[in-house]
Amino acid sequence: MIALGAVALAFWPDFAPLEARSAMPEGEEIRDEFRSQMIMPLAYGADSGRKMGPTSQVIPLASAPERPQIDVLATLAPGDSFATMLRRAGVSSSDVSRVSALIDDAMPLSDIEPGTQIDITLGRRMQPGTPRPLDALKFRARFDLELEIGRRGFNADTGETGMLALQRNVIRVDDTPLRVRGKVGSSLYRSMRSAGVPASAVQDYIKALDNQINLNREVRASDEFDIIVAYRRAATGERQAGNLLYAGIDRGGQPRTQLMRWGDEGRFYEASGVGEQRGGLIAPVPGRISSRYGMRRHPILGYRRMHAGLDFRARRGTPIAAVTDGTVSGAGRMGGCGIAVRLDHGSGLSTRYCHMSRMAVQRGQKVRRGQIIGYVGSTGLSTGPHLHYEMYRGGRHINPASVNFVTRAQLSGTELIDFRRQLIKLKEVDVGAALEDLEQLQTESEEPIREIEKIDMARRIGGGTNGP
């Protein structure tokens, strides 16, 4: 017992720590070796897979293989041609000519709006150094039309590609106008914008009503605005707002003001068929008056005679606007008046604009209030660039500053009947009906890409009658 106790005491361990193998290997090379076998996020620098140097068994390639296809998204820039855009995207000249001819048969190339995006797929080169052939091209040509160009008749054995062919994908479009109603409140503009009316339509609405009534005095906060805008809905989900069609103000449930756009000129007419009022005359040029109507000493002839108009100071080339609607009854050189334009406004009233540098209208042309008819010059008996403006009534000149008249269009006969029918039809549009999504037809449903989506779709179709 004593001997065994002595042996145990002889081999009794001390209390010093024991050396053990570290949990992580030491050294950069060893850690990189472990890291190559890990699965890590790309954000933390994942480099799964061990990299090995080339050996004698590796055969170097003469040239790196090219991608079989390249997808390009091209945009038609303002002022750019469709052909130039295709060449810039890498399409060969022969394919550009073929594509341009195909699209031109479907629609004029000039009708493609700037900003249109074109999906282009370029295929494999037939020989090194040659342009890639065009495999596919697809873009939205119009709101209701999608054009798609692809290869037809591909031969898998020989690798020869077929000819480019065009496919028209007509998109179903609903043209139900968008109608919005609501309280005027403290601010007509803010109330309409809060109701979802586009900003451009609100501006057109206010401008149309402002020509008929005083919005500040005649419109109350308790009144209701009624606006109808041209609206288009595509089956693919896109929406497009157009011009203002109807502008109205209701009070106590009854229409107080009703204006509807009518005719090729886009004028607004009241429900009675009376067109928008064009109040007063506008200044033909933005300059101040330098010489008024009456007797004066002529600056060139040197003696006193009647000055039958108003002289406006303006720089050479300043645009001259028609003071109101009319028809060009004369255009050309008119003696001491130089290059001049004479407008007939009806009811025996006419105006003449003298000393122009050049004209912008011709005889017999109809002009509207504010339309540019010429440019300031100094032709004829003139000491410098200015506009001499005259007005006549019954063939005799009068003081232009004393006349302030308005022009109103009036519908009659069958045109008035058609106008009222269209107004009734337009006001039958339900409020907010155009905001609903179009019901998708079976032929318009998208083809599922993944197999699991096909299974889910088949399950929904098969159990559709038992659904809620």
SSE topology sketch:
Blueprint: H1 2-10, H2 28-35, E1 70-75, H3 82-88, H4 93-106, E2 117-122, E3 134-142, E4 145-152, E5 163-170, E6 173-174, E7 178-183, H5 188-194, H6 199-210, H7 215-218, E8 224-234, E9 239-251, E10 254-262, E11 267-270, E12 289-291, E13 294-297, E14 304-307, E15 310-313, E16 319-321, E17 326-333, E18 339-346, E19 349-359, E20 366-367, E21 372-376, E22 386-393, E23 396-398, H8 413-426, H9 451-462
Antiparallel strand pairs: 1-2, 2-3, 3-4, 4-5, 6-8, 7-8, 8-9, 9-10, 10-11, 12-15, 13-14, 15-22, 16-21, 17-18, 17-20, 18-19, 19-21, 19-22, 22-23
Helix pairs in contact: 3-4
List key phrases describing it:
six-stranded antiparallel beta sheet; 19% helix; 9 helices; ten-stranded antiparallel beta sheet; 468 residues; Nuclear Transport Factor 2, Chain: A; disordered C terminus; alpha+beta; Glucose Permease (Domain IIA)
Give a brief outline of the structure:
With 468 residues, the chain is of the alpha+beta class.
CATH uppermost class of the largest domain: Alpha Beta
* Helix-and-strand structural type: alpha+beta
The count of domains is 3
N→C terminal distance: 91 Å
Oligomer: single chain
The residue-averaged pLDDT reads: 82
Helicity, in percent? 10-25%
| Number of continuous helical runs | 9
Name given to the CATH architecture of the largest domain: Roll
Largest sheet: 10 strands, antiparallel
Strand content: 25-35%
Radius of gyration over C-alpha positions, nearest whole angstrom: 40 Å
CATH topology grouping of the largest domain: Nuclear Transport Factor 2, Chain: A
Total strand count, please?
A: 23
Uncertain runs with pLDDT below 50, 5 residues or more? 461-468
Tell the overall outline.
elongated
